[in-house]
Inverse folding.
């Protein structure tokens, strides 16, 4: 297969195949539980559902790009995937989701209890893995990322249904729900490789901007994606989430539109046809295009950040990945 | 007030008052969230509900008993209390509890979502606090304790309603739900103080045995406590949990009794009068007394473990605490 025609994440997967095999083996070993077989059952349902393993690949790519040849990038990549899986399990309880990656969610197949507790187990497993690296700096970064993730989730909960939500609040929410783990994933890759402070900062900035762009695009797809993304069109609207295109449309709303948003988002009195109406209002104000432009701006920041890093095929793939993230809505 | 007539935990609280004031101040600072006011609201509801702060006192006592005079026992005590609070928040979601410490639970006052996410936030805060101590050994102990806690909770979930549950499984469950945090609390106190390996092992053994005795007693009180414990009589029976007295009674059941346990615990078809009937069956087999004797054996182990530690008023209080734990059912 010609590497040039592969998508950037597939190029990364090909380049990092040997490392990823080790990560997958470590994940399988560490998700086991001698005493509680429910744990690997629930975890396997999610971990083996064909996620893209984007976050662990970011850690591996960052470490390799900075010349690392020790063993601990594998531990850190597995750590990052465990944290991600734990947050998905808890998110599905919080969102009362029925589908994830095109399959029924764990809370539906088992119960909310299992999702909460297996999530806790995976978090503690991730914590054990990172302790094994012996790097206090890595632990510090991941502890801070964990706090930002949880805080962002709570903020999202309290900001839902609130039409006064600003773009600044939205940015905090998506830093928590997505960008904090992306930026920690790339940053710890650099730290474990002993990269310079400039390079570590650049890796953080890349992950942060990539994560923000990724989440803006994800939120846009909720108003224009297909079933193939594993999400249902309009989920965010039904859950009354204030995502970027809605925030932009609310800011420009006339009285009639404002009444519409009040009824559907603030009061949650939704009826047949409201989703189409919401999309029409957003289109009228160019809210989707404006949000897409914001995503492009973040992609540009991500790519600029990479300039400090050594020239390397992996750097080119990370650049390509940033472009690809937004191409999903082109 | 004469210290000799105080209960052991009140003696500890008096002796450690200055340290505990610092722990409480640190807890208040670290449970804050700049962006999500829901977090301190939910946390304060639980943290300030008048818990006994037993676990953080164990850490402080262990550290002081081993001669520590640095600042980090305070961080570790706050860590332990945050982990405890996080597990309570998640437990109440899992158990669908309505009351905790005699007050409505957070999942009832707010919602399950807040309990899950604020619990996650407190776990990440506890993680930040322990990283600040700079001790990888402490991190290792607490990471392992976290995994044991989560595993025990899942095991309890899958063992519930299963009449084949053995005393060995019960022991694993209560090590997870209670003893793992007690033993980590005392062990990290010794580690941060630079105590000898013998002393660190003794502190672990004390916390482990104390926690097991504590939980056996707690489970006994569920069939004979008063409302003053903040638990309702028979909660475990209604939730079909296989606790020690039930396991002992099931092991000795005749055919008729076995049918009773099948109906009430395995199938969950409970009716008026079943709780009284369950208690009568357990009394007939001496199951309560036998479980109480097990608790006394663990108390003896806890006290023996302490013998390696230096003679000190705090050691006497820890000895007294072990006796006191079982005196709740005398």
């Amino acid at each position: 297969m010609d590497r040039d025609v592969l998508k950037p994440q597939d190029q990364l997967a090909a380049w990092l195949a040997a490392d990823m095999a080790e990560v997958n083996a470590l994940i399988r070993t560490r998700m086991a539980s001698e005493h509680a077989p429910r744990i690997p059952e629930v975890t396997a349902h999610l971990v083996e559902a064909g996620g893209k393993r984007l976050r662990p690949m970011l850690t591996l790519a960052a470490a390799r790009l900075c010349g690392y040849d020790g063993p601990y990038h594998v531990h850190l990549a597995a750590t990052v995937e465990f944290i991600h899986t734990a947050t998905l399990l808890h998110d599905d309880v919080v969102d009362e989701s029925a589908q994830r990656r095109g399959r029924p969610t764990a809370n539906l197949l088992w119960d909310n209890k299992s999702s909460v507790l297996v999530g806790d187990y995976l978090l503690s497993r991730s914590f054990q893995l990172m302790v094994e690296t012996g790097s206090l700096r890595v632990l510090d970064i991941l502890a801070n990322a964990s706090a930002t993730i949880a805080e962002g989730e709570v903020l999202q909960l309290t900001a839902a249904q609130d039409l006064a939500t600003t773009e600044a609040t939205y940015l905090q929410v998506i830093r928590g729900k997505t960008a904090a783990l992306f930026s920690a994933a790339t940053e710890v890759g650099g730290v474990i490789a002993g990269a310079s402070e400039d390079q570590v900062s650049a890796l953080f900035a890349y992950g942060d901007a990539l994560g923000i762009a990724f989440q803006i695009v994800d939120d846009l797809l909720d108003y224009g994606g297909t079933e193939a993304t594993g999400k249902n069109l309009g989920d965010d609207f039904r859950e009354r989430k204030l995502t970027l295109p809605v925030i932009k449309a609310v800011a420009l709303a006339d009285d009639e539109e404002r009444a519409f948003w009040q009824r559907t988002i603030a009061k949650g009195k939704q009826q047949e046809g409201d989703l189409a109406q919401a999309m029409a209002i957003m289109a009228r104000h160019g809210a989707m295009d404006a949000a897409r432009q914001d995503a492009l701006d973040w992609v540009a920041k991500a790519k600029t950040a990479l300039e400090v890093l050594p020239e390397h095929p992996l750097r080119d793939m990370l650049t390509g990945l940033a472009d690809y993230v937004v191409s999903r809505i082109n």
Residues 264 and 272 of chain A are 11 Å apart (CA to CA). DSSP finds 16 helices and two strands in chain A. The two ends of chain A are 25 Å apart (CA to CA). The beta strands of chain A are 99-100, 103-104.
